[in-house]
TrEMBL record:
Ranges of residues in domain HTH tetR-type: 11-71
Database matches in Pfam families: TetR_N
Source species of the chain: Chryseobacterium terrae
The name this protein goes by in its record: TetR/AcrR family transcriptional regulator
Gene3D superfamilies noted in UniProt: Tetracycline Repressor, domain 2
Regions recorded as binding DNA: 34-53
InterPro entries membership: Homeodomain-like_sf (IPR009057), HTH-type_TetR-like_transc_reg (IPR050109), HTH_TetR (IPR001647)
Key words of the record: DNA-binding, Transcription, Transcription regulation
PANTHER family associated with the record: HTH-TYPE TRANSCRIPTIONAL REGULATOR BETI, HTH-TYPE TRANSCRIPTIONAL REGULATOR RUTR
Length: 192
């Protein structure tokens, strides 16, 4: 099974439940997806999902935490040039977003229709940590208007990623969109 990101799942049934829930939450929304919908799509019973996750919210949280884990590993310490470090961080962040289009879409939807205070808190911490790292690198690279720069780059990324998450054939669109966005970000935002 081909998984994107550092999924810490050993049980293949549990992995299948997570991937299916992620897809259904992305397609139908959290509130419109039931445990029964997920179980039917996986080909298992509701008790198996309850065994692994206890609640639908815990299932959602696991998807978000897996996204967080994939974003947590994008920093590079092999370079000393601040501009190169910033560009590397931005590019790896964008690539991670493209590879995790559905969880990114779930985070966006949670901003509008919060699943719970807990999910909102997890997403807020994840966003703050990402921005904080970006800010440190941008300050070292002597960029100004850092919040505007961050918002411009990642709002554009999220908009494109959301469109890809909803598209039927996302594999080709994703590759083309990624390369085009990386070129645009480099030539528009990461120049001084």
């Amino acid at each position: 099974m081909n998984l994107k990101g550092p999924w810490k799942i050993v049980d293949s049934n549990k992995t299948q439940i997570l991937l299916t829930a992620q897809k259904l939450f992305s397609e139908k929304g959290y509130r419109n997806t039931s445990i029964r919908d997920i179980a039917d799509r996986v080909g298992t019973n509701c008790s198996m999902i309850n065994y692994h996750f206890k609640t639908k919210e815990n299932l959602y949280i696991q998807i978000i935490e897996n996204l967080w884990s994939s974003l947590d590993h994008i920093s590079s310490d092999n370079e000393t040039d601040a501009n190169v470090l910033l560009k590397d961080f931005v590019f790896k962040s964008i690539e991670a977003a493209f590879h995790n289009a559905q969880p990114i879409q779930l985070c966006l939807e949670n901003k509008i229709f919060p699943v719970s205070e807990k999910t909102d808190s997890i997403i807020k911490k994840m966003t703050e940590k990402h921005f904080s790292h970006f800010k440190i690198l941008a300050e070292k690279a002597k960029y100004s208007h850092i919040k505007f720069l961050y918002t411009s780059i990642f709002a554009l990324t999220i908009d494109i990623v959301s469109q890809i998450a909803k598209s039927a054939d996302s594999s080709k669109d994703s590759r083309d969109g990624l390369e085009e966005l990386l070129r645009y970000v480099e030539t528009t935002f990461l120049v001084q």
